[in-house]
Amino acid sequence: MTTQARSRRGGALSSRLDRPVVVAFACIVALLLLGSLYSRSFLSPDYLLQQLKVASFLGVIATGALIVILLGQIDLSVPWLVAVGGMMATAATAWGPIGAWLAIPFGVACGVALGLVNGFGVAYLRIPSMIVTLAVNAVAQGLMVVHTGGFSPQDSSSPAMRALATGSLAFGLPNAVIVWIGIGACAVFVLNRTTFGRSVYGIGNRERAAYLSGVDTQRIVLLAFALAGGLSAFGGVLLAGYASKAAQGMGDAYLLPAIASVVLGGASIMGGRGSYLGTVAGVVLITLLQSILSVVQMPDAGRQVIYGAVIIGMLLLYGREGAAR
Amino acid sequence: MSDWRYALAQNRATLISVAFFVAMFAIYASNHPAGFSANVVETAANKGVLLALVAMAQTFVVITAGIDLSVGSVFVLSNCLASAIVVGSAGHAALGVLGVIATGAACGAVNGLIVIVGRLQPIVTTIATGAIFYGLALLLRPTPGGDVYEPLADALTGRVFTVVPASLVALAAVALAVWIPYSRSALGRAAYAVGSSEAAAFMSGLPVASAKASAYVLSGLTASLAGLFLTFVTYSGEASAQTGGSYTLYSIAAVVLGGVSLYGGSGSAIGAIFGALMFRTIGDLLFVFNLDPLWQPLFQGVVLLVAVSLGAARLFRVRNRLELFS
Amino acid sequence: MTESEQGPPILRMEGVSKRYGGVRALENANLAVSAGRIHAILGENGAGKSTLIKILAGVVAPDEGRIALDDREVAFGAPADASRAGIVCIFQELSLVPDLSVADNIAIVNPPTRFGMIDRRAQRRVAEAALARAGAEDVHPMALVKDLPLSRRQMVEIAKALARAPRILILDEATSALTAADVAKVFVVLKRLRDEGLALLYISHRMHEIAELADECTVFRNGSNVATYPAGTKSDAEVVELMIGRELSAVFPPKPRQRTASATPLLDVRRLSWTNRLRDVSFHVETGEVVGLGGLDGQGQRELLLALFGVLRGVTGEVRVAGRAVAPASPHAAKSTAIGMALIPEDRKTEGLMLPMSVGANLSFAALDRVSRAGVLDRDREGKLVRQMMDLLAIRAGSIDIPVGALSGGNQQKVVIAKWLMAEPRIILLNDPTRGIDVATKQEIYQLLRKLADAGAAILFYTTDYSELIGCCDRALVIYDGAIRRVLVGEEITERALVASALNIDSDTGVVAGGAS
Question: Is residue B15 part of a domain?
Answer without folding.
Answer: no
